[in-house]
Amino acid sequence: MWTRIVNGWHFMRWLRLVTGLILAYQAYVLADSVFGLMAAFFLLQAITDTGCCGASSCATASYRKPNENPDEPEFEMINHKTK
Question: Are 42 and 23 in contact (CB under 8 A)?
């Protein structure tokens, strides 16, 4: 877990961290719990490198029939009739 926290810092992770810190500061200054919850959300995403795109959760699963063999090509018969 420690290597996941320390390594792999990219632009979106830094942006989440800065956003979380700004929101935490605003939550402290304004004594607002909504800003505190938003700050905790962004800081958790930054520290654990999770989010919509961090864990590839936005990717859609490819659909394949259970009996379908991916190694066999599909062929379709085309009839040409010329006059």
Answer: yes
